[in-house]
Amino acid sequence: MAEIKVSELSSEHAFGARIAGLNWDNINDPAVRERINATFVERGLIVFEDMEPSAKMQVAVSKIFGPLKDHPTKSTPRDGETGDEAEGVIDMHYDPKKGNNDAGGLVEIDGQVLARFSPWHFDHCYNDELNYAGVLRSPIVAPEGGRTGFMDGIELYKNFPKDLLAQIEGLNVIYTLDTRLTKQRFGVNFKAFEDNSPPMLALLKEVAIFPRAMHPAVWTRETGEKVLHIGPWMSVGVEHNETAEFEAVYDAVCHEINRQGTGNAAYWHEWKPTDLVIWDNHRMVHAVEGCDAKHERQTLRTTIKGDYGHGYFEDGKKIGEVFREVA
């Protein structure tokens, strides 16, 4: 049986790993799966290279790390290729020929209009529970741009300016389901265009009843490391500190996260259709740089169940109660 090969992500990063040689011959081998999981716990991100570019393979790799979880919003597009076997595979597809301005809308940065831009964030921040991980592949790759960036919260905590860290540690950040970039208040470094697409209009019906969620700016892993875990996108302030004075502090924190993302703190992945990338959603933040709006781009994401236990809704509700109200 062929062995997998594990190597570092890059010489510039203390997190992440690359794995080659995973295929149908060894994917169910217990020793292989144990090694992959141990690598993931230690490194927080894995790039699987030269993989079969299929939904079936994506689901199989995802299940190495745990059971799948459906997306917490009903309006998010699902992938039709995988059927019932892959509950929770979501389809983030921008096609300029169809004019479907979904999954984040359009922005202008330095005079260029970009599609599929996503600021720094962690998935399901607007929920009381955080999924353990996300698995992403890109069947349709833009000819330029469209990279996905990742930053490790453990390294961010170590390297963040101490004065800013001291003001935010021990506090909870408030997040909402409203993903409209025109509504982002902190760390804004782009010009956003209104998104009136059908998926967004459907989402806004859920936004209207979805409670605000709280997550710690810093939390401590079972292994002892402290994690700085803040996403400027979808955050609307800091719990018990919703004043103009403290919002200026929080805005400085978010701009510093952006600044870190332009340096060696971030790994920016250049996509190939044969790549699969998994990241620890409790530890990492990620972003998408966007691509020229004339290019088509598609990513498919699988969500892995799991929670770190530190998030909660402002009014004490649970997600099941929220969706009973939507129905």
Automatic annotation (TrEMBL):
Its EC number is 1.14.11.-. SUPFAM superfamilies: Clavaminate synthase-like. It holds the Pfam family TauD. It is an enzyme of class 1 (oxidoreductase). This is TauD/TfdA family dioxygenase. The keyword Nucleotide-binding does not apply. InterPro entries: TauD-like_sf, TauD/TfdA-like, TfdA_dioxygenase. The keyword Hydrolase does not apply. Residues 14-302 form the TauD/TfdA-like domain. Belongs to the TfdA dioxygenase family. Gene3D superfamilies: Clavaminate synthase-like. It comes from Novosphingobium anseongense. GO terms for molecular function: dioxygenase activity. Keywords: Dioxygenase, Iron, Metal-binding, Oxidoreductase.
